Amino acid sequence: MSDLIVLPLVLPLFGAFLLPIVMRTSISIGAWIGPAILAYGCWILGDQWMSGTALPFSLAIGGFAPPMGINLYIDSLALLFAFAVQLLGLLFWPFKIDQETARRQALMLLLVAASTGLALSGDLFNLYVFYELVAVATFGLIAASGSSAAYASTIRYLILSGIGSVLTLLGIALIYSQTGTLNLAHLAQLAPEQLNNKLGLTAFLTILIGVGVKAELFPVNTWAPEVYATAASRVSAFLAGLVSKLALLIILRLLVLIFHQPEAVQVMLVLGILGVITGELAAWRAKDVRRMLAFSSIGQLGMIFIALAIPEQGGLLAVLALTFHHLLIKSGLFMLADGWGGAIEKLRGAAKRSPLAAAIFVLFSLSLIGMPPLPGFWAKFTLITQLAAQTSPLYLIGLTVFLLATVIEAAYLFRLAALLYGPAAEDTPIDTIPKPAGLSLATASLFGIGLLAAALFITPVGDLLSHVAGQAANADLYINTVFAGTGGSQ
Amino acid sequence: MRNLTSLLFAGGLGFMLLAIASGLDFGAPPMLVGGAIQSTAPQETGATNIVTSVVLGYRGIDTLGELSILFAAAAAAGLVLGRRHTTAGTLTEGGFVLKHGGAMLFPLLMTIGFYIIFHGHLTPGGGFQGGVILAAAFFLPLLARPGARLHHGMLSVIEGFAGSSFILIGLAALSEGEAFLQPMLVQDTLGQLVSAGTLPLLYLAVGLKVGAELAGLLSHLAQTESEV
User: Fold this and answer.
1) CA distance A148 to A150
2) What is the dihedral of CA A440, A442, A444, A450, to 10 degrees?
3) Which of A251, A281, A341, B180 fits a 20 to 30 Å CA distance from B119?
4) Residue to substitute from A11, A61, A166, A176, interface B, most B β-carbons within 10 A
5) Residue B98 to residues B89, B143, B214: CA-CA distances in angstroms?
6) Is a pLDDT exceeding 90 seen at residue A417?
7) What count of other Cβ atoms lies within 10 Å of the Cβ of residue B51?
8) pLDDT of A277 over the 80 cut
9) What is the DSSP string of B35-74?
10) pLDDT at residue B228, rounded to an integer
């Protein structure tokens, strides 16, 4: 049963390779391949979760026991992320049928496969390969929207992403030159002796900046507003909602398993604080809905980096709460922005045109700001209590910035809400006000329902998250699982 | 201002790397996993070329990822480059020597390409290298006759089936109760042409996919070029 966990990673690749051939003969059959594969992936992962197989477990690819071969490491966190990848891939599926359908859908399948790989892989270089695949598939999907602005933003993203990849590879090379292994569990065993030095710190920083490109870490996040404003909303939603979180997951694993230096954490804290300040201020000044969402996402990810800098397990709980909360909210908001692109001013009176869309926007905004009893409040409250419990003054600066950011967030989100519910400009008839497309609105409503459900069942959700955090924070469990589960199979 | 910060960043990074590199132990790489693989690879995979046993065996899923990256890059380039206008002019054909030289080189390059692919588990080389040579075999005549067309439908069919058969070979192992991409049929014929079980088949898939992909991409680029 647990062997099948490799299928959600491999079948999308299989589908992507075959799609151009099938589409050549029949577009209507080809159009079902992707959704069917993703639905099957959801089913396998959901079944894995429900079947109660003892988590975590490790799966050796090719039958070579780690650290010789590559292994997948499946704990609750990895499973949760992999499931989210398949589900969001399905929700954001590019249904549009035109000349380029085969290429676009193949790229989407590749993106899903690579993201699943990022969630599951237990090998540093294998993570890098999937990280690259995410990048290349993303370039294609952003450029697929076809506008010259999208091409320009793709080129900028490509350059920045290339620099990030080189830095990441450099960090991995440094680690390998020092230890002679790439397996995360093996590295976790060797790290206290061999990477607890300046070289280890350099390796961490280069990987942090490199992977930070996708995690929208300050200062390598300048691509985000342009890309999110020009790419198709579904692509933006997938990138901002999920891919940025998967990059965070890599950093989280590295911090838990390998790098325990206090300097590493401090750098991350400072970059996180700067990210929050710059992101929220820029969002406050933004004149375009999607840019505003992009800058707000930079700010939110800064908050997650601040949470990641808290060394104890409680910090990890705050990270997970903020992460999954932001995943729900930003995906939903970008789906709403599908019809609301362009200048904010054009949305005057949009609540009359589409009351449901405006209501969902207000719901998301309230949760994003942290209004009880919505889940956003609990996520932020966890972070505040954790920050307040720290003694170092840097954390108190983080706390202050965090609270200020919430005020700014409230200011710009309510400004937009006031516009939506305000009177329409006199010279615009009501049916010219933009409105989200039906399918996007339905998807956004799904995220809204998910958010409300999480608010209703906040206690079980909280228990689940602390269980997941406890498992993810346990480095010894990781090492023992990887070397016990497959040891001696060769 | 922006130039200055870039300069500072590049300088700082360079200094840091020099400082780190000066402390590294050159010529004494830690062969922790590498050494272990060197001593067991021929027995476990049946391939005398240890690089092949790493690329297709120990780190087979990395190779699958790299194939996918190449595929994603080709698909993305295809999306951006778009289609050729029917009105676009063509470049003039090459001379007698170039045309016939290209035609004569075609079988030679094909032979070398397939030789390198089929001997990937024995000698240096393999699917990626052989695949590039196959692509060159198709592209060379195209350079000599810019008006000629490659059969894109055929190429994408080869490419799709080669890529999916890589995965199918992996899934076959899974359905036999082994791990995904586990080398199978490894017999005790180390050093023979028929050895190393499924590894040569995987390399054949890699070679065909890389060859078809690159040939298609190059001819696509050449056609877009002649639009201007």
Assistant:
1) 5
2) -150
3) B180
4) A61
5) 21, 9, 22
6) no
7) 14
8) yes
9) HHHHHHHHHHH--S-HHHIIIIIITHHHHHHHHHHHHHHH
10) 44
User: Quick one: tokens of B71?
Assistant: 């595929």
List, as ranges, residues 20-79 from B with C-beta within 8 Å of A: 20, 23-24, 29-34, 36-37, 40, 44, 57-62, 64-66, 68-69, 71-73, 75-76, 78-79
d(CA A308, CA A312) in angstroms, rounded, equals 9
CB-CB contact of A454 with A378 (8 Å): no
Give the pLDDT band of residue A95 (cuts 50, 70, 90): confident
Q: Give the C-alpha separation, A481 to B12, whole Å.
A: 40
User: Helix, strand or coil for residue A436?
Assistant: coil
The tokens describing A85, both together, are 């990848």
8 A C-beta contact, residue B181 and residue B45: no
Asked if A136 lies within 8 A of B72 by C-beta distance, the reply is yes
Q: Locate the chain A residue with the closest alpha carbon to B182.
A: A62
* pLDDT averages per 10-residue partition of chain B, 228 residues: 87 86 78 84 82 87 92 88 60 80 90 91 88 90 77 85 90 83 75 78 91 86 62
> How far away is chain B from the Cα of A439, in angstroms, using its nearest Cα?
25
B-chain residue closest to A101, CA distance: B79
- What pLDDT does A490 receive? 32
Long-range interactions of A36-40: CB distance < 8 A, separation 24+: A37/A11, A37/A12, A37/A109, A38/A12, A38/A86, A38/A87, A38/A89, A38/A90, A38/A93, A38/A109, A38/A112, A39/A90, A40/A7, A40/A8, A40/A11
The yes-or-no verdict on residue A395 having pLDDT over 60 is yes
Q: How far is A411 from chain B (nearest CA, A)?
A: 31
Q: How many other CB atoms are there within 10 angstroms of residue A417's CB atom?
A: 16
| For residues A292-297, average pLDDT | 90
**Residue A421 confidence (pLDDT):** 84
- ipTM value, please give it: 0.89
Q: Which of A55-64, A68-77, A151-160 comes out lowest in average pLDDT?
A: A55-64
- Can you tell me the distance from the alpha carbon of A295 to that of B121, in angstroms, rounded to the nearest whole number? 51
| pLDDT at residue B91, rounded to an integer | 67
Percent of chain A at pLDDT > 70 equals 98
- Taking the CA of residue B39 and the nearest CA in chain A, the distance in Å comes to 12
Residues in chain B: 228
A129 against B155, higher pLDDT: A129
| Segments making up each domain of chain A, as ranges | 2-485
| Contact across the interface for A10 and B180, Cβ inside 8 Å | yes
Here the tokens at position A480 are: 């023992």
- pLDDT recorded at residue A488: 39
What are the boundaries of each domain within chain B?
Answer: 2-225
Contact A133 B36 (CB under 8 A): no
> Is the Cβ–Cβ distance between A383 and A318 less than 8 Å?
yes
